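Example for reference:
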Amino acid sequence: MVDAQRSLAVVDSNAKALLDWLSTFKGFYNKLELQDADAAGRGLFAYGKALNSPLNSIPLELFPALASSDSPPRSPSSAVPRLTTTQLLALHLALTHDARGRHRSEWQIFLDSIETDFTPWHPLTWSLSKDDFWQTLESRLSRSVRVKIDAVRRRYDADLAVLKRVLTTVEPFKSQGVIDAIPENALLWAWLNGEYKRDGHSNAQ
């Protein structure tokens, strides 16, 4: 009970810090507040929402430009492919787990509010676990569920290969040896958050 209360207090603190941080930017509009809702748990919910009115508006200045008009064109023979949204998000999140802290995120307040661990809640973590218990549990899933998890596993494996290629061939990551400073489970955490954020899902907090 004590751990649960402490965890809830951390979630509340992180959510409040996120809204306070966003409110410091000109143009931020918010109709969300932290509250308990019947059958929906605790989280950020809309209040006083009129039909078709926006829930919030985040200023464009907070979003990094992925490329500028001055950026050189990508070579057709480039060793690194153009990254997908999931891969970009996963790369950004994974870099925040660099053991030497060389790639801190300007969005750290937001990152503090997202899911911190998918183990054991996401079945993908079962299939990747070295623990016999979780592997056995994964093998007991229904065929229809296993088909879906296998599809997720294939996407993860493909994206992980791309991320490792970026971290080992692109500067400054290559010369920094970043790949050796990011734990494998951090790459999984980063990818799952990237996958969920891309799909617009909200991780339970």
